Amino acid sequence: MTATDRSHELINTAAQAAADKLAHDIVAYDVSDVLSITDAFLLASAPNDRQVKSIVDEIEERLSKELGAKPVRREGDREARWVLLDYVDIVVHVQHSEERVFYALERLWKDCPELELPEDARATRGKAEEHARLRAEEEAADLGGDW
């Protein structure tokens, strides 16, 4: 069994919405062979809670407006460290970058086929690493300044 056309449509729209809100490291997996509850997972991350919320809001709005899809469940809103949107056909995980590294969902699903995503979403690969490196350089420069 593979992800349905509807799942692909939802994944691509959600991935584009996440990319438009500058999400990092967007990736999608076809989990239909290992899970009976959903066809695909979309993973995305952001460096701060506010951006996590912004990405989640954009995904929800786009899926509702463009495809008439509403999540049956939404979890993790209050902390905005890891928000899960369950659309039955797909499940979207938007995580704070620290949670993304800690929980490493990619390791759990690495044996599942990766789904092709829009170019804008593919271009986000490595952004979390780049962001962390730039922040470390800024902090080092701040610490090295004249007191």
List the helices and strands and how they pair.
Layout: H1 5-20, E1 24-30, E2 40-46, H2 49-67, E3 73-75, E4 82-86, E5 90-96, H3 97-103, H4 105-109, H5 119-122, H6 127-143
Parallel strand pairs: 2-5
Antiparallel strand pairs: 1-2, 3-4, 4-5
Structure description:
The protein has 147 residues and is an alpha+beta fold. It has six helices and five strands, in the order αββαβββαααα. A five-stranded mixed sheet has the order 1-2-5-4-3. Strand 3 and strand 4 form a beta hairpin. Helix 1 packs across helix 2. It is globular and about 55 Å long. It starts with a helix and ends with a helix. The model has no long low-confidence stretch (mean pLDDT 91).
